[in-house]
Amino acid sequence: MTVRIVRLKELVFRSGLGRSSIYEMVSTGDFPAPVQIGERAIGWIESEFETWLNAKTAQRDAIRASAAQTHAQQLRGANPQKTGAPKNLLISSKKKG
Predict the structure, then answer these.
(1) How far is residue 55 from each of residues 26, 60, 80, measured CA to CA in Å?
(2) Of all helices (H) and strands (E), which one includes residue 76?
(3) Which of 4, 10, 56, 59 has a beta carbon 3.0–4.6 Å from 46's, enabling a disulfide?
(4) What are the C-alpha distances in Å from 58 to residues 8, 41, 62?
(5) pTM above threshold 0.90
(6) In whole angstroms, what is the distance from residue 6 CA to residue 18 CA?
(7) Contact (Cβ atoms closer than 8 angstroms) between residue 35 and residue 43
């Protein structure tokens, strides 16, 4: 297995995050830590970055699925009289007469 090292410039491009945001997230443990690749050079292991990115994508998808499920449940169970809608806005099938 080949380990590929990704430098900061590529990380910024691929993640859409800024340099300072990446370093801040590294310091809080919310982003993979870099590895020392030289006396004055660091990089990130590409597979760790991809794992982080896949986790973010899965998190987003779970939130969307949950929101869609909640919305569908609300639509199935919607009853305007129980939602507190003003009675004058409710449509009635009774004819006034």
Answers:
(1) 16, 9, 39
(2) helix 46-76
(3) 4
(4) 24, 31, 6
(5) no
(6) 15
(7) yes
In the structure encoding, which two tokens stand for residue 28, read together? Answer: 């809080």
Using alpha carbons only, how large is the chain's radius of gyration in Å? Answer: 25
- Pull the structure tokens for residue 66: 């949950």
pLDDT by residue for the chain (97 residues), tens only, comes to 899 999 999 999 999 999 999 999 999 999 999 999 999 999 999 999 999 999 999 999 999 888 878 877 777 776 555 555 555 555 555 665 5
Say which residue the tokens 């569908």 belong to.
Answer: 72
Q: Check residue 88 and report its DSSP letter.
A: G
Distance CA 22, CA 54 (A): 16
Judge contact between 44 and 32, C-beta under 8 A: yes
Rounded Cα–Cα distance for residues 74 and 41 (Å): 53
- What's the chain's length in residues? 97
